[in-house]
Amino acid sequence: MRASRWLLAALLACALPARAATPWTLDQLLHGFAQTREAHSSFVEKKSVRVLERPMVSSGELHFSAPDQLEKRTLRPRPELLRLDGDTLTLERGERRLQLSLRGYPQAAAFVESIRGTLAGDRAALERVYRLQLEGSERSWALTLTPREPEMAALVARVRIAGRRAEVSVIEIEQANGDSTLMSVQRLPAP
Amino acid sequence: MTVRRLAPLGAWIAVLGVAGAIAAGARYTADLSAFLPRTPSAAQQLLVDQLRDGAVGRVMLIAIEGGDAAARAALSRDVGTTLRADPRFAYIANGTDQGMERERRILFAHRYLLSPAVTPERFSVAGLRAAIEETLDLVSSSAGGLAQALLPRDPTGEMARLAEARLSEGPRPAIEGGVWASPDGTRALLLARTAAAGADTNAQEAAMQAVTSAFDAAAARLNAPQVRLRMTGAGVFAVESRAIIKREVARVAALGIALIAALLLWAYRSPTALLLGLLPVLTGALVGVAAVALGFGAVHGVTLGFGATLIGEAVDYAIYLFVQTGAVHGNRDTWLAEFWPTIRLGVLTSMIGFSALLLSGFPGLAQLGLYSLCGLAAAALFTRFVLPLLLPAGFRVRELVALGERLGRWRAAAGGWRWLVAALCAGAAVTLIAQRGALWASDLSGLSTITAEDQAYDGRLRADLGAADARYLVVARGGDEQEALRAAERVAKALQPLVAQGVIAGFDSPARYLPSDATQEARAASLPEPGELRIRLAQALRGLPLRADRLEGFIADAARVKAGARLRRADFEGSALGLALDALLVRRAGGWHALVPLRAPPAGPRAHVIDAALVRAAIAGSGALFLDLKTEANALYTGYLNEAIALAAAGVAAALLLLLLALRSAARVGRVALPLGAAVVV
Description:
The complex is a heterodimer. Helix content of chain A is about 25%, strand content about 45%. The longest helix of chain A is centred in the first third of the chain and has 14 residues. In chain A, about 35% of the residues are buried. The two termini of chain A are about 30 Å apart. Chain A contains 5 helices and 11 strands. In chain B, about 65% of the residues lie in helices and about 10% in strands. In chain B, helix 11 runs antiparallel to helix 12 and helix 22 crosses helix 28. The longest helix of chain B has about 35 residues. The interface between A and B is medium-sized, with 32 and 25 residues.
């Protein structure tokens, strides 16, 4: 489930096109996602864990390639690669390599499907899993996703995505247990 | 009828009754034990133990095919639930117990005794700092969920170590719809362990029926008629083998009886003659089975199969009687005087020949010897004492003079073809000598009734499940449980370099679940006293985002181990880990065995094969035995075959000796033996 949480964040971060549009509505935001074929961003992630005195910081790059390839490459403090390719999730960390099929994890699969729905501009798919709330203006907006299913709500309290004009700048995931992750994203030019 | 006539008849009926009762109550087996020498080597005994009641024999693989994925998953769940409540099964796994909550609790409670990383250095200030830094690293990673939740109680990350050790245990089954499935997603998979031993074929058959009825009920309930069930495993194969052998024996027997009956009917045109002609065979077969059941306790399938052909010669006895009774115009006394000695000699040579088998060190061969000996004796005695009494007055079989004359003419004509017969014999002999190696196929699979397709399917399911193919095994032994565990720990140490070199992909060991007391003590001794641990933590955590006062749970857990909490076999009771332990740590006559199954490399130049010499060299001096079950089983069969050949030769020699004594002429013996020898060679 942890993996799926950041997947959502990463996908949303990658998918947002640098394109201005007025008036600012949810449909337009989602329509923008669907236009993106390829995206490349850098990230800094701050993870706040209750028992720790200060957040753990990591950083690296995100890469999305339509329709369903996604990579989170952590460079600091320790290299790690998380990749979603179709239904297969792979985690590489040091000598270890873990691969699992999302088919085996219906909750995670639903999560991923909702993201795919988002990328496809499929608002209905996204709303099956979350209640959506868009606030603010085109210059400074925030989209809040709250899980509908109790199983998911037991893990994720809510996801907040904030943007300036047409770009995502922050993705914040609040866990039900009080821990949280704050990811700052910056678009990079295509490599 | 006179008393003189009634006495043999009465005796015969009594013998038939008793033999029939014994044969009906006898135990029939089809396992490998027939090929096991009476004084087996340690490796041979281990092999047969493993197959007979080891964990290997109890594993049943169940596949659900056809229909759609949702239907298969629903069926797998339903069948799993039914079978878990069935006392015939010790364990059912189908992926629904993914969480393994119970197992995780056991591992967590005893992590400081189980983790191989627990050493005095790891609990020094520097060691603690390194371990905690690594755990914090993991917490910050995408895979850090569990480490994050356990951080206050497991800051050194022992659970991650244990998970890693288990993760390295080869591939795990794929999951589809929440249950185990083949990687290509075409079947749902269940793994069952029967309560009964693999060699208990009746119990295995009952277990298979339980699976079938659970499946049928579930398929009906879920309305999924297009879904199919398939089972494999050693026990399943034994059940199927037995069914095939039963069917084959019945078929061959029926065919043989039909052929002989047709021949006799054609020759004698008399149903009475037919019935009477078959009686010696039936009597002999029944007495033979009863004798084996009495002498050995259980009758082997092999004995029934081969024995039926050996006892077939008894049909000749009756024919001699019929034909020769005719020749002496029905005068029984004349027959007894003139022809009985000839038959007697024939019977005695056969019996002496077969008696050589009795000396065999293999119960399977000895059974065959006893069966033939008693069966032929019974058939001969029956022909001599009872059959003549049963012949109707004036019984005459049709004269075969016309046929005899025709044969006689052919024989005269064939005189010119003698060289052909000689050439044929010589050719056959040359072929035999040239192919003597391949003549006796020494691969046990040649004797197996399991088809190559079934075996391939079994292999496929094992690969799907990531289950060991159960071929390679190191057996560490000890006088008691602790000694066996310590031996297993030494073996594990010796095998580690082979894993690094890629000779083996990995291994399992009972000491992984239940470390020996010595190892548990050493790990407990690595932990500092609570006061000392607090002091060290305060130093180790300097500069890290974790405060020592958050780690009271960790300090308490370590203190409990320090105070003497130990892991016992009973702690695993009823869990999947307990079952693994039961399979790997077993009591045997004269001690305990710790089994260390090896996994062959899954790919590369030596995929699926392990170099026995390298493993033997690695464990040399540890007292443990390396066992390649396939090679060992083939060696067993080869030994059996070699002894069978040697004994057959001895039997022939003994028979020739008897003939020599009776005929008092080497030339005449040669004339008698030559046609037979030529027939065998051809």
